[in-house]
Amino acid sequence: MRLSREDDDKLMVSESITNQKSLLLQYVKENNLRVYDIYIDDGYSGTNFDRPDFNRLLNDIELGKVNMVITKDMSRLGRDYIGTGNLIEKYFPEHNVRYIAVTDNIDTFLDNSNNDIAPFKAIMNDMYAKDISKKIKTSLKAKMKEGKWVGGRTPFGYVQDKDDKNHLVINEEQAIIVKRIFDMCLEGLSFFKIAKQLTNEGIKTPAQYYSFAWKSNYKLKYGQWHSKTIRDILTNRMYIGDMVQNKRSKVNYKIKKVIKNDVCDYIIVENTHEAIIDKDTFYEVQMRIPKNIGRCEKKENHLLDGLLYCGDCGHRISIQSRRKKDNRCYTICNYYRTYMKQRLCTTHSNNYDELEQVILSSLTNMCLSYINKDKIKNDVLNNLTDDHKFNHEKELEILTNDIKQINDNLDIIYIDKLNKKITEEQFERVKIKLERELNIKQKRYNESSNNINDNINEESKNKLIIEYINKFLSMKEPSRELIINLIDRIEIFEDKRVDIKVTFNIDARTNV
Ligand SMILES: [Zn+2]
Q1: How far is the centre of ligand 1, averaged over its atoms, from the C-alpha of 333 (Å)?
Q2: What CATH topology corresponds to 2-122?
């Protein structure tokens, strides 16, 4: 509300503050609006915008506290048409403020003709510009709806068709890079890693290509790929041949400020140009793209990461990142995640922290029972092994003697043959017999000595395992290294059954 001296002089009762107030409050009530504050400048001229409460209003708008301004009529806002026009056409829309002048029937929210004509009759040029802008906008949207490219930066991988400006064709050089990015994503590389690799290889970035294409004086010599660029490429439906436009719009024709449109405002027409990426690949990639947009959180190191397998399909089970709302993280079968639509497996979703606890306590039990069993076994074995060892050693000794004896005999018959004590025939017969015997003894000797070595290896391996187990049992928080030494793999089944395969010889099964 505003009341100036000029108004007062003319005794314009209708303009009194009380009058304005009751009219506005009536309007507010009728339209179910909520009042944030009432701003009154009593005794200030409308040609001057430097009014205390008016400034307070602007301040509140900028703080985002106010999204609607109502005056009795336009002149209450100001008498200066340029200043007022500025407010209504630039300032308010830029700050998402709806303006209503009750008796002038102006409402910037409703795009009615009154807004255009009534207050700005004098500013014909301005009007004309606005009208043209509107017409252009309408015709652009019509073109978009027909699936025609209406200009601007072509998506990376495409250029405008020389014969038809509204049609896009593939730029082979860039398309190869686009394909490579999709492949790298399927290989499991993160946006960051893809960007890093492309940068390292000196692959030109989209920005570099454009700086050369636009014939500007400013050419980018060095380019750096960013995670966001990779993400934008991987999520762009343009690459499967669909035209996606109207992503952004200008607030209005006077302001250069551009705002992002809601996804529901996008104008999408399918199959308008040649695809670079086939649909299967594209949708598979969409499934791999993490939902937390733009945030690169540090990956948590889980104790059991890499040891979890799907008991039903055999693929790995991964641990998803912690959810913000309850700080929980869940497991998921990779095969299920990749082929969700084809339903090749099921979720295998378990609260990871609970799963870890169950597995650790189960591992503890396994270790305890192994050690107990081992004690009994060792007590029995200790005697046995000594006997066993002794037998092996004794056997080796006997065999060594036997072999020596045979060799001696071989020498003797050879001398006998030379001295003609035995015939050639006799020599050959005895020689074959002795050689066969020698062969058998030699084989047995080798086997026996190997057995002794195996026993020694088995023993040291067992000692190491016992060492790991004791370490594990004494630790409150076991290290990942220790866990890997004790667990081969963990299989998780959809029915919550869990099989733990350990590196020591014991069978166990548990449930989540
Ligand atoms: Zn599975």
Answers
A1: 5
A2: Rossmann fold (3.40.50)
Q: How far is the CA of 335 from the centre of ligand 1 (A)?
A: 5
- For 223, what's the count of Cα atoms within 13 Å in the CB-facing half-sphere? 21
pLDDT in tens, 100-147: 888 877 787 775 555 554 444 335 444 555 566 666 677 788 888 889
Q: How close is the Cα of 509 to the center of ligand 1, in Å? A: 19
Provide CATH 3.40.50.1390 ranges for the chain: 2-122
Least confident interval from 2-16, 257-271, 440-454, 481-495:
2-16
| d(CA 348, ligand 1 centre) in Å | 7
496 C-alpha to ligand 1 centroid (Å): 13
Nearest by Cα to 305 from 323, 325, 332: 332
**How many whole angstroms from 319 Cα to the centroid of ligand 1?**
13
- Ligand 1 mean position to 325 CA, how many Å? 26
**Cα–Cα distance measured from residue 416 to residue 406, given in angstroms and rounded to the nearest whole number:** 15
Q: pLDDT (tens digit, 9 = 90+) per residue, 410-432? A: 888 888 888 888 888 888 888 88
Q: How far is the CA of 48 from the centre of ligand 1 (A)?
A: 72
Q: Where in the chain is the domain with CATH 3.90.1750?
A: 158-288
Instruction: Dump the DSSP string for 147-171.
Output: T----SSPPTTEEE-SS-TT-EEE-
Q: Which CATH number fits domain 158-288: 3.30.40, 3.90.120, 3.30.1360, 3.90.1750?
A: 3.90.1750
Return the residue matching tokens 């948590």: 300
